[in-house]
Design a protein that fits this description.
- It is globular, with a radius of gyration of 18 Å.
- About 2% of the residues have low confidence.
- Helix 2 packs parallel to helix 9.
- By secondary structure, the protein is an all-alpha fold.
- It starts with a helix and ends with a helix.
- The relative contact order is 0.19.
- It has 10 helices and no strands.
């Protein structure tokens, strides 16, 4: 028996009983999003000028960026949970949110006077961002790791890291409804740091939880 066939056979034997990986991930994302939305509403709440903000491309971009990250990361984590699955197409997907953010930053730098760059980068709510995004991501992360246990990842740490990116994207998506800082410069720095922290936690937990 070839090595790849042996891995597939072993993973089939140890796969937990219950819903399939796809179903478990769908449930994890849905419940995680609901938990993040409720947590945001009960603690911070939606920003008071949200109706006016809906007319701002910068405000809307935050949701596009974080949703894109969550979607491609969930897709990649699902692929990583299947032994010997082709990963390149899912891995390339991570360039989508990266390219979106890079483009938004370039446009911001081109359209805003240099004197205003630092003010927009620092913003007014960076400390809240660094606490709120990870807080809103904890339940999604736990649910995603639970779902991914139904697969057979060859690297629990890497799969957990990607799950952390997905959870961080979900948490940041709902935090964005409260965040008064809409500049892509702010998103590129503080959202990225917050989501990276969640990804790091996902890697640590994944190394233990996703071992098989």
């Amino acid at each position: 028996m070839k090595t790849d066939e042996l891995i597939l056979a072993l993973s089939a034997d140890v796969r937990p009983r219950g819903p399939s990986l796809a179903v478990a991930l769908a449930v994890a994302v849905t419940l995680g999003a609901i938990a993040a939305a409720i947590g945001m509403q009960l603690t911070l709440g939606i920003r008071p000028d949200v109706l006016a903000a809906l007319g701002s491309p910068r405000f809307l971009f935050k949701f596009v960026e974080t949703a894109a990250l969550a979607v491609v990361a969930v897709r990649l984590a699902a692929r990583m949970s299947r032994p010997s699955a082709e990963l390149w197409s899912a891995e390339v997907g991570l360039f989508v949110p990266a390219l979106l953010l890079f483009t938004a930053v370039v446009l911001e730098l081109a359209s805003v006077p240099e004197a205003a760059w630092e003010r927009r980068l620092v913003g007014t709510n960076w400390a809240v961002c660094l606490m709120a995004v990870p807080a809103f991501s904890l339940v999604p992360l736990g649910l995603l790791l639970w779902a991914l246990r139904r697969g057979a990842s060859e690297s629990g740490a890497l799969t957990g890291l990607v799950a952390g990116l997905a959870a961080g994207g979900i948490g940041a998506f709902f935090y964005a409804a409260h965040c008064p800082d809409d500049s892509p410069l702010f998103v590129a720095v503080w959202y990225t740091i917050a989501i990276a922290g969640v990804a790091g936690l996902g890697a640590l937990l994944g190394a233990r939880i996703l071992r098989w």
